[in-house]
Amino acid sequence: MAWILMKALNLSMMVGSAVIIWKALMCMSGSESPVVVVLSGSMEPAFKRGDILFLYMSKDPIRAGHILVFNVDGRDIPIVHRVIEVHERQDTGEVDILTKGDSNLVDDRVLYAQDQLWLQRHHIMGRAIGFLPYAGWVTIILTEKPIIKYVLIAALGLLMII
């Protein structure tokens, strides 16, 4: 019985450590999602599918050339694209941002919500400040092939029991 209790305690400590690390990254980056995985090839050659991006939410002005991760109203998955145009409204201080994937032929207006022509600051999750090539493939495989996820969970459960 004590052996099972030790295993459960060990598992809870690992999960707790992961949560603490994630929360610390959130505090340091200023972003609710400090790490994202590139899911498509729209940013090649800068980033490839499976690269992990590290984000930082800065108060510095957004400029053309910056790579942003943003959410679009009505979509669950964030998008990673480059800023191609910025309009600053002097009267309100608001900023209108237009983005485009490096390997896409047209800007992202077709990806934005219906009748939306620009992104605003509330859409931005963060600015890419670094990346780790190919390290996100595990996430992509587990998302696209759920059977592998279930086999892995079963194997970990079995390993914990043994």
Task: Characterise this structure.
The chain has 162 residues and is an alpha+beta fold. It has a single domain (31-161), classed as Umud Fragment, subunit A. 32% of the residues lie in helices and 23% in strands. It contains 3 helices and 6 strands. The protein has a 6-stranded antiparallel β-sheet. A hairpin with an 8-residue loop joins strand 3 and strand 4 (79-88). The longest helix is centred in the N-terminal third of the chain and has 28 residues, at 2-29. The protein is elongated. The two termini are 13 Å apart.
Short description:
GO terms for molecular function: signal peptidase activity. This protein is α+β, with helices and mostly antiparallel strands.
Summary tags:
single chain, alpha+beta, Umud Fragment, subunit A, six-stranded antiparallel sheet, 32% helix, 23% strand, Peptidase_S24_S26A/B/C, transmembrane
The proportion of residues in beta strands is 15-25%
Major sheet: 6 strands, antiparallel
CATH architecture: Ribbon
The count of domains is: 1
Give the overall shape.
Answer: elongated
List the helices and strands and how they pair.
Layout (H helix, E strand, L loop, with lengths): L1 H28 L5 E3 L14 E5 L10 E4 L8 E10 L6 E6 L23 E9 L4 H8 L1 H16 L1
Helix pairs in contact: 2-3
